Amino acid sequence: MRSCLLENVTKIVILPEKPYICTQTSPKMNQRKIVSGALIVVCLLLLTMITIRKSNNTSEFPEFAEQIEEIEPNTIYGICADSYIIEEDAVKSGESLSVILGRYGISAAMVDSLVRVSADIFDVKSIRGGNNYKVFLSEDTTSQKLSHFIYEKNKIDYVVFSFEDSITVRSDSKDIISETRLAEAEISSSLWNALVDQDVSPALAMELSEIYAWSIDFFGLQKGDRLKVIFEENYVDSTKVGIGNILGAWFENNGKRYYAIPFEQDGKIKFWDENGNSLRQSLLKAPLSYSRISSTFSHSRLHPVLKIRRPHYGVDYTAPAGTPVYAIADGTVTSKSYSAQGGNTVKLKHSQGLESGYLHLQGFAKGLKVGQKVSQGELIGYVGSTGLATGPHLDFRLRKNGKPIDPLKVDSEPAEPIADEYKVHFAMVKETVLGVLDGNNEPSEILAAIRTEPAVFRRDSLAMYINGR
Question: Rounded to two decimals, what is the model's pTM?
Fold first, then answer.
Protein backbone atom coordinates (compact mmCIF):
# COMPACT_ATOMS: atom_id res chain seq x y z
CA MET A 1 0.00 0.00 0.00
CA ARG A 2 1.50 3.30 -1.11
CA SER A 3 1.42 6.29 1.19
CA CYS A 4 1.51 9.98 0.39
CA LEU A 5 2.34 10.92 3.98
CA LEU A 6 5.77 12.22 4.97
CA GLU A 7 6.18 11.80 8.70
CA ASN A 8 8.98 13.06 10.92
CA VAL A 9 8.03 11.83 14.36
CA THR A 10 9.98 12.43 17.54
CA LYS A 11 8.68 10.47 20.52
CA ILE A 12 9.46 11.25 24.13
CA VAL A 13 8.29 8.67 26.62
CA ILE A 14 7.80 9.89 30.18
CA LEU A 15 7.58 7.15 32.74
CA PRO A 16 5.35 7.70 35.77
CA GLU A 17 7.18 8.51 38.95
CA LYS A 18 7.26 5.88 41.68
CA PRO A 19 6.29 7.01 45.16
CA TYR A 20 9.29 7.79 47.36
CA ILE A 21 9.58 5.30 50.21
CA CYS A 22 12.05 5.96 53.03
CA THR A 23 13.76 2.69 54.00
CA GLN A 24 17.05 1.75 55.53
CA THR A 25 19.56 0.55 52.89
CA SER A 26 23.10 -0.70 52.78
CA PRO A 27 26.05 1.57 51.82
CA LYS A 28 26.49 -0.31 48.50
CA MET A 29 22.86 0.20 47.60
CA ASN A 30 23.16 3.88 48.46
CA GLN A 31 26.21 4.10 46.20
CA ARG A 32 24.31 2.52 43.32
CA LYS A 33 21.43 4.95 43.81
CA ILE A 34 23.82 7.90 43.79
CA VAL A 35 25.37 6.69 40.51
CA SER A 36 21.93 6.06 38.97
CA GLY A 37 20.76 9.49 40.05
CA ALA A 38 23.80 11.10 38.53
CA LEU A 39 23.20 9.29 35.24
CA ILE A 40 19.58 10.46 35.16
CA VAL A 41 20.68 14.05 35.74
CA VAL A 42 23.25 13.78 32.93
CA CYS A 43 20.64 12.31 30.55
CA LEU A 44 18.20 15.11 31.34
CA LEU A 45 20.91 17.70 30.71
CA LEU A 46 21.80 16.08 27.37
CA LEU A 47 18.13 15.95 26.36
CA THR A 48 17.72 19.64 27.21
CA MET A 49 20.83 20.56 25.19
CA ILE A 50 19.60 18.57 22.18
CA THR A 51 16.20 20.26 22.34
CA ILE A 52 17.81 23.69 22.55
CA ARG A 53 20.17 22.83 19.66
CA LYS A 54 17.22 21.71 17.50
CA SER A 55 15.41 24.93 18.31
CA ASN A 56 18.50 26.98 17.40
CA ASN A 57 18.97 25.07 14.15
CA THR A 58 15.36 25.78 13.17
CA SER A 59 15.80 29.47 13.86
CA GLU A 60 19.15 29.50 11.99
CA PHE A 61 17.55 27.84 8.92
CA PRO A 62 13.93 29.00 8.87
CA GLU A 63 13.65 28.35 5.14
CA PHE A 64 14.42 24.65 5.75
CA ALA A 65 11.74 24.45 8.42
CA GLU A 66 9.23 26.10 6.09
CA GLN A 67 10.05 23.60 3.35
CA ILE A 68 9.30 20.70 5.67
CA GLU A 69 6.02 22.24 6.83
CA GLU A 70 4.86 22.89 3.24
CA ILE A 71 5.26 19.30 2.02
CA GLU A 72 1.78 18.02 1.29
CA PRO A 73 0.51 15.01 -0.61
CA ASN A 74 -0.18 15.68 -4.30
CA THR A 75 -3.77 14.51 -4.68
CA ILE A 76 -5.43 14.58 -8.11
CA TYR A 77 -8.97 13.28 -8.72
CA GLY A 78 -8.88 11.90 -5.18
CA ILE A 79 -5.78 9.82 -6.02
CA CYS A 80 -2.36 10.18 -4.40
CA ALA A 81 -0.32 11.06 -7.49
CA ASP A 82 3.22 11.05 -6.03
CA SER A 83 3.88 7.40 -6.81
CA TYR A 84 2.58 7.40 -10.39
CA ILE A 85 3.71 8.42 -13.82
CA ILE A 86 0.91 10.57 -15.28
CA GLU A 87 0.16 10.98 -18.97
CA GLU A 88 -2.60 13.05 -20.50
CA ASP A 89 -4.19 13.28 -23.92
CA ALA A 90 -7.50 13.94 -25.66
CA VAL A 91 -9.90 11.43 -27.14
CA LYS A 92 -9.49 11.34 -30.91
CA SER A 93 -12.45 11.45 -33.26
CA GLY A 94 -14.10 8.02 -33.48
CA GLU A 95 -11.89 6.59 -30.72
CA SER A 96 -13.52 4.24 -28.20
CA LEU A 97 -12.61 3.50 -24.60
CA SER A 98 -11.47 -0.04 -25.49
CA VAL A 99 -9.04 1.34 -28.08
CA ILE A 100 -7.53 3.80 -25.60
CA LEU A 101 -7.24 1.26 -22.79
CA GLY A 102 -5.82 -1.33 -25.20
CA ARG A 103 -2.77 0.88 -25.69
CA TYR A 104 -2.07 0.46 -21.98
CA GLY A 105 -2.38 -3.30 -21.86
CA ILE A 106 -6.03 -3.60 -20.80
CA SER A 107 -7.50 -6.70 -22.43
CA ALA A 108 -10.87 -6.96 -24.14
CA ALA A 109 -12.09 -9.17 -21.29
CA MET A 110 -11.17 -6.51 -18.74
CA VAL A 111 -12.90 -3.82 -20.81
CA ASP A 112 -16.01 -6.01 -20.91
CA SER A 113 -15.91 -6.30 -17.10
CA LEU A 114 -15.43 -2.55 -16.84
CA VAL A 115 -18.49 -1.90 -18.99
CA ARG A 116 -20.62 -4.06 -16.70
CA VAL A 117 -19.26 -2.44 -13.52
CA SER A 118 -19.82 1.10 -14.86
CA ALA A 119 -23.32 0.46 -16.29
CA ASP A 120 -25.14 2.38 -13.54
CA ILE A 121 -22.49 5.10 -13.26
CA PHE A 122 -21.33 6.00 -16.75
CA ASP A 123 -22.13 4.85 -20.28
CA VAL A 124 -18.73 4.24 -21.88
CA LYS A 125 -20.29 4.74 -25.32
CA SER A 126 -20.83 8.40 -24.47
CA ILE A 127 -17.10 9.17 -24.61
CA ARG A 128 -16.64 12.09 -26.99
CA GLY A 129 -13.80 13.09 -29.24
CA GLY A 130 -11.89 16.13 -28.01
CA ASN A 131 -12.51 15.46 -24.31
CA ASN A 132 -9.42 15.12 -22.11
CA TYR A 133 -8.25 12.06 -20.22
CA LYS A 134 -5.37 11.15 -17.90
CA VAL A 135 -3.69 7.82 -17.15
CA PHE A 136 -1.91 6.96 -13.90
CA LEU A 137 0.86 4.41 -14.48
CA SER A 138 2.59 2.45 -11.71
CA GLU A 139 6.15 1.30 -12.35
CA ASP A 140 7.52 -2.10 -11.37
CA THR A 141 10.86 -3.71 -12.11
CA THR A 142 10.03 -4.63 -15.70
CA SER A 143 7.26 -2.38 -17.05
CA GLN A 144 4.59 0.25 -16.46
CA LYS A 145 1.08 -0.81 -15.49
CA LEU A 146 -2.15 1.17 -15.84
CA SER A 147 -3.62 1.81 -12.40
CA HIS A 148 -6.19 4.55 -13.05
CA PHE A 149 -7.83 6.03 -16.14
CA ILE A 150 -9.66 9.36 -15.72
CA TYR A 151 -12.07 10.62 -18.37
CA GLU A 152 -13.20 14.25 -18.14
CA LYS A 153 -16.86 14.55 -19.19
CA ASN A 154 -16.50 18.33 -19.09
CA LYS A 155 -14.46 20.94 -17.25
CA ILE A 156 -16.08 19.97 -13.96
CA ASP A 157 -17.23 16.32 -13.98
CA TYR A 158 -15.05 13.25 -14.46
CA VAL A 159 -15.08 9.46 -14.18
CA VAL A 160 -12.31 7.38 -12.55
CA PHE A 161 -11.71 3.80 -13.78
CA SER A 162 -9.34 1.95 -11.43
CA PHE A 163 -7.50 -1.32 -12.15
CA GLU A 164 -5.37 -1.90 -9.05
CA ASP A 165 -6.87 -4.53 -6.71
CA SER A 166 -10.07 -4.90 -8.72
CA ILE A 167 -11.96 -2.97 -11.38
CA THR A 168 -13.85 -0.06 -9.83
CA VAL A 169 -15.62 2.96 -11.32
CA ARG A 170 -16.67 6.19 -9.66
CA SER A 171 -18.02 9.53 -10.88
CA ASP A 172 -16.98 12.77 -9.22
CA SER A 173 -16.59 16.51 -9.73
CA LYS A 174 -13.76 18.98 -9.30
CA ASP A 175 -13.99 21.68 -6.67
CA ILE A 176 -15.54 24.85 -8.02
CA ILE A 177 -13.95 28.04 -6.76
CA SER A 178 -16.21 31.09 -6.81
CA GLU A 179 -15.16 34.72 -6.97
CA THR A 180 -17.64 37.53 -6.35
CA ARG A 181 -17.43 40.15 -9.09
CA LEU A 182 -18.96 43.53 -9.80
CA ALA A 183 -19.39 44.43 -13.47
CA GLU A 184 -20.72 47.57 -15.14
CA ALA A 185 -21.42 48.03 -18.83
CA GLU A 186 -23.07 50.41 -21.30
CA ILE A 187 -24.79 49.09 -24.38
CA SER A 188 -23.61 50.41 -27.73
CA SER A 189 -24.66 47.55 -30.01
CA SER A 190 -25.93 44.61 -27.93
CA LEU A 191 -25.96 43.34 -24.37
CA TRP A 192 -23.82 40.38 -25.48
CA ASN A 193 -21.06 42.62 -26.84
CA ALA A 194 -21.27 44.98 -23.85
CA LEU A 195 -20.55 42.10 -21.46
CA VAL A 196 -17.78 40.60 -23.61
CA ASP A 197 -16.06 44.01 -23.68
CA GLN A 198 -15.94 43.86 -19.86
CA ASP A 199 -14.46 40.32 -19.90
CA VAL A 200 -17.73 38.88 -18.60
CA SER A 201 -19.25 35.64 -19.87
CA PRO A 202 -22.16 36.25 -22.29
CA ALA A 203 -24.02 33.63 -20.22
CA LEU A 204 -24.73 36.50 -17.82
CA ALA A 205 -26.93 38.04 -20.52
CA MET A 206 -29.21 34.99 -20.39
CA GLU A 207 -29.38 35.15 -16.60
CA LEU A 208 -30.32 38.83 -16.67
CA SER A 209 -32.92 38.32 -19.40
CA GLU A 210 -34.64 35.74 -17.19
CA ILE A 211 -34.54 37.97 -14.09
CA TYR A 212 -35.94 40.98 -15.97
CA ALA A 213 -38.26 39.02 -18.30
CA TRP A 214 -41.30 40.82 -16.86
CA SER A 215 -39.76 44.31 -16.76
CA ILE A 216 -37.50 44.81 -19.78
CA ASP A 217 -37.88 43.90 -23.43
CA PHE A 218 -34.37 42.66 -24.21
CA PHE A 219 -35.07 42.81 -27.94
CA GLY A 220 -35.82 46.50 -27.59
CA LEU A 221 -32.65 47.62 -25.81
CA GLN A 222 -31.30 51.00 -26.85
CA LYS A 223 -27.85 52.46 -27.22
CA GLY A 224 -26.91 54.08 -23.92
CA ASP A 225 -28.81 51.59 -21.74
CA ARG A 226 -26.63 50.63 -18.78
CA LEU A 227 -26.34 47.87 -16.20
CA LYS A 228 -24.44 47.00 -13.05
CA VAL A 229 -24.47 43.50 -11.61
CA ILE A 230 -22.97 41.58 -8.69
CA PHE A 231 -22.41 37.96 -9.57
CA GLU A 232 -20.31 34.90 -8.83
CA GLU A 233 -17.83 33.73 -11.44
CA ASN A 234 -16.91 30.07 -11.13
CA TYR A 235 -13.46 28.58 -11.72
CA VAL A 236 -12.02 25.08 -11.92
CA ASP A 237 -8.22 24.80 -11.98
CA SER A 238 -8.02 28.57 -12.61
CA THR A 239 -10.24 28.19 -15.72
CA LYS A 240 -13.58 30.00 -15.98
CA VAL A 241 -16.42 27.49 -16.09
CA GLY A 242 -19.50 29.67 -15.87
CA ILE A 243 -21.65 32.02 -13.88
CA GLY A 244 -22.85 31.27 -10.35
CA ASN A 245 -25.45 33.18 -8.38
CA ILE A 246 -26.64 36.68 -9.29
CA LEU A 247 -26.33 38.64 -6.04
CA GLY A 248 -27.90 41.90 -7.13
CA ALA A 249 -28.23 44.22 -10.10
CA TRP A 250 -29.71 47.33 -11.62
CA PHE A 251 -30.55 47.84 -15.28
CA GLU A 252 -31.27 51.22 -16.88
CA ASN A 253 -33.58 50.87 -19.88
CA ASN A 254 -34.99 53.88 -21.70
CA GLY A 255 -34.00 56.12 -18.78
CA LYS A 256 -35.65 54.02 -16.07
CA ARG A 257 -33.62 52.06 -13.50
CA TYR A 258 -34.81 48.58 -12.49
CA TYR A 259 -33.29 46.99 -9.37
CA ALA A 260 -33.03 43.25 -8.77
CA ILE A 261 -32.44 42.09 -5.19
CA PRO A 262 -32.37 38.34 -4.42
CA PHE A 263 -34.43 37.11 -1.50
CA GLU A 264 -36.02 33.81 -0.52
CA GLN A 265 -39.75 33.60 0.11
CA ASP A 266 -41.96 30.51 0.07
CA GLY A 267 -38.86 28.33 -0.18
CA LYS A 268 -37.64 29.79 -3.49
CA ILE A 269 -35.08 32.45 -4.35
CA LYS A 270 -36.73 35.25 -6.32
CA PHE A 271 -35.84 38.78 -7.31
CA TRP A 272 -37.47 41.94 -5.98
CA ASP A 273 -37.21 45.68 -6.58
CA GLU A 274 -36.01 48.17 -3.96
CA ASN A 275 -39.55 48.51 -2.61
CA GLY A 276 -40.02 44.79 -2.00
CA ASN A 277 -42.20 44.21 -5.08
CA SER A 278 -41.57 41.02 -7.03
CA LEU A 279 -39.97 41.45 -10.45
CA ARG A 280 -42.18 38.59 -11.56
CA GLN A 281 -45.36 39.90 -13.14
CA SER A 282 -48.64 38.18 -13.89
CA LEU A 283 -47.77 38.32 -17.62
CA LEU A 284 -44.49 37.83 -19.46
CA LYS A 285 -43.26 40.81 -21.48
CA ALA A 286 -43.40 38.60 -24.59
CA PRO A 287 -44.10 34.88 -25.18
CA LEU A 288 -40.88 34.27 -27.15
CA SER A 289 -37.48 35.62 -28.14
CA TYR A 290 -38.24 37.52 -31.33
CA SER A 291 -36.33 39.48 -33.96
CA ARG A 292 -38.87 42.27 -34.50
CA ILE A 293 -42.56 43.14 -34.41
CA SER A 294 -43.86 43.00 -37.99
CA SER A 295 -47.46 43.93 -37.28
CA THR A 296 -49.29 45.48 -34.32
CA PHE A 297 -52.83 45.39 -32.94
CA SER A 298 -55.21 47.15 -35.35
CA HIS A 299 -58.91 47.49 -36.15
CA SER A 300 -58.09 47.80 -39.85
CA ARG A 301 -55.00 46.24 -41.37
CA LEU A 302 -54.21 45.27 -44.95
CA HIS A 303 -53.87 41.50 -44.81
CA PRO A 304 -50.52 40.50 -46.38
CA VAL A 305 -52.01 37.43 -48.10
CA LEU A 306 -55.66 38.28 -48.76
CA LYS A 307 -54.87 41.92 -49.71
CA ILE A 308 -58.02 43.20 -48.02
CA ARG A 309 -58.49 45.36 -44.95
CA ARG A 310 -59.69 43.59 -41.84
CA PRO A 311 -59.11 43.81 -38.07
CA HIS A 312 -55.88 42.30 -36.71
CA TYR A 313 -56.43 41.72 -33.01
CA GLY A 314 -52.92 40.60 -32.20
CA VAL A 315 -49.20 41.29 -32.45
CA ASP A 316 -47.02 39.53 -35.03
CA TYR A 317 -43.57 38.62 -33.69
CA THR A 318 -41.08 37.72 -36.42
CA ALA A 319 -38.72 34.90 -35.41
CA PRO A 320 -36.95 31.94 -37.05
CA ALA A 321 -39.02 28.81 -37.60
CA GLY A 322 -38.72 26.50 -34.60
CA THR A 323 -38.23 29.29 -32.05
CA PRO A 324 -39.81 28.15 -28.73
CA VAL A 325 -43.09 29.78 -27.71
CA TYR A 326 -44.00 29.99 -24.02
CA ALA A 327 -47.17 30.48 -21.99
CA ILE A 328 -47.60 34.17 -21.15
CA ALA A 329 -49.01 33.28 -17.71
CA ASP A 330 -50.24 30.36 -15.62
CA GLY A 331 -53.32 28.85 -17.20
CA THR A 332 -55.18 25.92 -18.72
CA VAL A 333 -55.09 24.72 -22.33
CA THR A 334 -58.60 25.26 -23.77
CA SER A 335 -57.81 24.59 -27.43
CA LYS A 336 -55.14 22.85 -29.50
CA SER A 337 -56.24 22.86 -33.12
CA TYR A 338 -55.63 23.71 -36.77
CA SER A 339 -57.54 26.17 -38.95
CA ALA A 340 -57.07 27.32 -42.52
CA GLN A 341 -56.28 30.87 -41.47
CA GLY A 342 -54.59 30.57 -38.06
CA GLY A 343 -52.79 27.31 -38.77
CA ASN A 344 -51.69 25.39 -35.68
CA THR A 345 -53.15 27.30 -32.75
CA VAL A 346 -53.05 27.02 -28.95
CA LYS A 347 -55.44 28.89 -26.66
CA LEU A 348 -54.98 29.27 -22.91
CA LYS A 349 -57.39 30.46 -20.22
CA HIS A 350 -55.89 32.47 -17.36
CA SER A 351 -57.23 34.06 -14.19
CA GLN A 352 -59.29 37.27 -14.05
CA GLY A 353 -61.03 36.62 -17.37
CA LEU A 354 -57.85 36.69 -19.47
CA GLU A 355 -57.32 34.43 -22.51
CA SER A 356 -54.26 34.13 -24.78
CA GLY A 357 -53.88 32.75 -28.32
CA TYR A 358 -50.78 31.56 -30.21
CA LEU A 359 -51.26 31.21 -34.00
CA HIS A 360 -49.32 29.88 -37.05
CA LEU A 361 -47.28 27.45 -34.93
CA GLN A 362 -44.96 25.00 -36.65
CA GLY A 363 -45.86 22.41 -34.04
CA PHE A 364 -47.00 21.87 -30.47
CA ALA A 365 -44.97 21.08 -27.36
CA LYS A 366 -44.65 17.35 -26.81
CA GLY A 367 -47.51 15.98 -24.71
CA LEU A 368 -49.53 19.20 -24.74
CA LYS A 369 -53.26 18.46 -24.50
CA VAL A 370 -56.56 20.23 -23.87
CA GLY A 371 -57.36 20.57 -20.17
CA GLN A 372 -53.69 20.54 -19.18
CA LYS A 373 -52.50 23.16 -16.70
CA VAL A 374 -49.39 25.09 -17.75
CA SER A 375 -47.09 27.41 -15.83
CA GLN A 376 -45.91 30.82 -16.88
CA GLY A 377 -42.92 30.39 -19.18
CA GLU A 378 -43.75 26.75 -19.98
CA LEU A 379 -43.14 25.59 -23.56
CA ILE A 380 -46.36 25.26 -25.58
CA GLY A 381 -45.16 25.27 -29.20
CA TYR A 382 -42.77 26.51 -31.89
CA VAL A 383 -42.83 29.41 -34.33
CA GLY A 384 -43.98 28.45 -37.81
CA SER A 385 -45.88 29.67 -40.87
CA THR A 386 -48.90 27.38 -40.96
CA GLY A 387 -52.24 28.76 -42.17
CA LEU A 388 -52.36 32.12 -43.98
CA ALA A 389 -48.80 33.38 -43.40
CA THR A 390 -46.09 34.85 -45.61
CA GLY A 391 -43.27 33.64 -43.38
CA PRO A 392 -42.43 32.28 -39.93
CA HIS A 393 -43.89 34.41 -37.15
CA LEU A 394 -46.11 34.21 -34.07
CA ASP A 395 -49.50 35.92 -34.10
CA PHE A 396 -50.07 36.49 -30.39
CA ARG A 397 -53.52 37.55 -29.12
CA LEU A 398 -55.12 38.47 -25.80
CA ARG A 399 -58.74 38.75 -24.74
CA LYS A 400 -60.12 40.21 -21.52
CA ASN A 401 -63.62 38.97 -20.63
CA GLY A 402 -64.07 38.00 -24.29
CA LYS A 403 -62.95 41.34 -25.71
CA PRO A 404 -59.71 41.68 -27.78
CA ILE A 405 -57.02 43.83 -26.13
CA ASP A 406 -53.64 45.08 -27.33
CA PRO A 407 -50.89 42.81 -25.88
CA LEU A 408 -48.42 45.70 -25.97
CA LYS A 409 -50.63 47.93 -23.81
CA VAL A 410 -52.00 45.47 -21.28
CA ASP A 411 -51.23 46.18 -17.63
CA SER A 412 -49.49 43.39 -15.78
CA GLU A 413 -49.89 43.17 -12.03
CA PRO A 414 -46.80 42.22 -9.96
CA ALA A 415 -46.75 38.95 -8.09
CA GLU A 416 -47.15 38.81 -4.32
CA PRO A 417 -44.78 41.28 -2.56
CA ILE A 418 -42.46 40.58 0.38
CA ALA A 419 -44.51 39.17 3.26
CA ASP A 420 -44.67 41.22 6.47
CA GLU A 421 -42.69 38.67 8.49
CA TYR A 422 -39.74 38.96 6.07
CA LYS A 423 -39.62 42.72 5.65
CA VAL A 424 -36.94 43.31 8.30
CA HIS A 425 -34.68 40.65 6.81
CA PHE A 426 -35.29 41.97 3.29
CA ALA A 427 -34.34 45.49 4.39
CA MET A 428 -30.99 44.19 5.67
CA VAL A 429 -30.28 42.37 2.41
CA LYS A 430 -31.33 45.38 0.33
CA GLU A 431 -29.02 47.70 2.29
CA THR A 432 -26.04 45.42 1.68
CA VAL A 433 -26.78 44.85 -2.02
CA LEU A 434 -27.40 48.53 -2.77
CA GLY A 435 -24.24 49.40 -0.84
CA VAL A 436 -22.21 47.21 -3.20
CA LEU A 437 -23.95 48.56 -6.30
CA ASP A 438 -23.32 52.14 -5.12
CA GLY A 439 -19.64 51.40 -4.47
CA ASN A 440 -19.80 51.74 -0.68
CA ASN A 441 -19.26 48.05 0.08
CA GLU A 442 -17.00 45.38 -1.37
CA PRO A 443 -18.76 42.64 -3.40
CA SER A 444 -17.37 39.96 -1.09
CA GLU A 445 -19.24 41.49 1.87
CA ILE A 446 -22.52 40.10 0.58
CA LEU A 447 -21.61 36.52 1.50
CA ALA A 448 -18.91 37.10 4.11
CA ALA A 449 -21.34 36.89 7.01
CA ILE A 450 -22.52 33.38 6.24
CA ARG A 451 -19.66 31.58 4.53
CA THR A 452 -17.53 29.28 6.66
CA GLU A 453 -15.37 28.53 3.60
CA PRO A 454 -15.29 31.82 1.62
CA ALA A 455 -13.31 30.47 -1.34
CA VAL A 456 -15.42 27.40 -2.02
CA PHE A 457 -18.64 27.72 -3.98
CA ARG A 458 -21.59 26.68 -1.81
CA ARG A 459 -25.01 27.11 -3.37
CA ASP A 460 -26.80 26.84 -0.02
CA SER A 461 -24.96 29.85 1.43
CA LEU A 462 -26.82 32.37 -0.73
CA ALA A 463 -30.19 31.07 0.42
CA MET A 464 -29.07 31.37 4.05
CA TYR A 465 -28.02 34.96 3.54
CA ILE A 466 -30.93 36.27 1.54
CA ASN A 467 -33.41 34.75 3.95
CA GLY A 468 -31.73 36.59 6.83
CA ARG A 469 -30.68 33.42 8.62
Answer: 0.58
